[in-house]
Amino acid sequence: MNDSNKPRYGQEDASFQAAGGYDGIRQLVDDFYQIMDSLPDATDIRAMHREDLTEARDKLTRFLCGWLGGPRLFLERYGQISIPSFHARWPIGEPERDAWLGCMAQAIDRQPWHPEFKEYLLRQLRVPADRVVQAARARREPDTQ
């Protein structure tokens, strides 16, 4: 495959397709929450969720579909979302971000996706994860003006 035929992740629905569409993303989310339930390092972030993960699974699946260039299913069902604002109710710092990304890295590794897409996706997921931490830090720091 020459460079002109390579998928251009992040453009149109290339990432959504590389993830296997809705079903592939749903499998990623199912694996993610299974890992979160079983990984000792994820105890704190798991405690931020309800016992029943049905709604969390639905929301994350729908969000990722649109975020990866597919149908905007989250918007259709739940409306607009600001990732940092949504997560503002929890104390999220670097350890929580790293635990979340660690669970996601393991879930991504389980998927039958191209290695380049796996790398791309984890790199892209770090961006909103870092923004959540930055927003939480800004809320904790006193106004310096």
TrEMBL record:
Gene3D superfamilies, A to Z: Globins
Top-level taxon in the UniProt lineage: Bacteria
Signal peptide positions on this chain: none
Keywords of the record: Heme, Iron, Metal-binding, Transport
GO MF annotation, one: metal ion binding
This protein's record includes keyword Transport: yes
PANTHER family linked to this entry: TWO-ON-TWO HEMOGLOBIN-3
Family statement: Belongs to the truncated hemoglobin family. Group II subfamily.
Protein name: Globin
Taxonomic lineage from the root: Bacteria, Pseudomonadati, Pseudomonadota, Gammaproteobacteria, Pseudomonadales
